[in-house]
Design goal:
Mean pLDDT: 81
Helix content: 10-25%
Number of helices: 2
Shape: elongated
Order of helices and strands: HEEHEEEEEEEE
Distance between the termini: 59 Å
Number of strands: 10
Strand content: 35-45%
Length: 138
C-alpha cells in the first residue's frame, strides 16, 4: 500500500469521524488509529437547596448518576430482560445498565448493596454526565 492510499484513508477517517480503520489489501493489513481530543467537561448544575434537603431527608437513598454522556440501555440486548427492575436486590459491583458512548458499551455497576427504588430513565434515552439513572435504598 502506498502513501497516497494511506492519506486517502486517513482523510476518509477524519470526514466520517472514525477513530480506527483496518484495510486488508493483497495479504497486507494496515490499521490506522487516531485519538480524539478530549471533550470539554460538561457543567452539572448545582442542586437546588430544596432538592438537597429532600435528599438529606432520604439519606438511605443512594442515587446512581451517569459517569458519561451516552445512550442508556437497561438490558444487554434488545429482546433480553433488563439487568435490574424496581424492587430488585442488587449487590455492589452488579451491572445495573449499559451506557453506549462512541460505539463502546460501558457497563455501569452498583456502588452499594440495596434495593432498586426507581429507574429514572427509559431504555434508549440519551443521558448526560451526572444524570440520575437509579435510586437505590440502602
Amino acid at each position: 500500500m502506498n502513501e497516497s492510499s494511506i492519506r486517502k484513508y486517513a482523510k476518509l477517517m477524519n470526514e466520517l469521524g472514525l477513530t480506527g480503520l483496518e484495510i486488508t489489501e493483497n495479504d497486507t493489513v494496515v490499521r490506522l488509529e487516531r485519538s480524539i481530543a478530549a471533550a470539554a467537561p460538561v457543567a452539572v448544575p448545582a442542586q437546588a437547596p430544596a432538592a438537597r434537603a429532600q435528599e438529606e431527608e432520604n439519606s438511605d437513598l443512594f442515587v446512581v448518576r451517569s459517569p458519561m454522556v451516552g445512550v442508556f440501555y437497561s438490558a444487554p440486548a434488545e429482546n433480553a430482560d433488563p439487568f435490574v427492575s424496581v424492587g430488585d436486590h442488587v449487590r455492589c459491583g452488579e451491572t445495573l445498565c449499559i451506557i453506549e458512548a462512541m460505539k463502546l458499551m460501558n457497563e455501569i455497576p452498583s456502588e452499594i448493596n440495596g434495593v432498586v427504588e426507581q429507574v429514572c430513565v427509559k431504555n434508549g434515552q440519551a443521558v448526560d454526565y451526572g444524570c440520575e439513572l437509579f435510586r437505590i435504598r440502602r
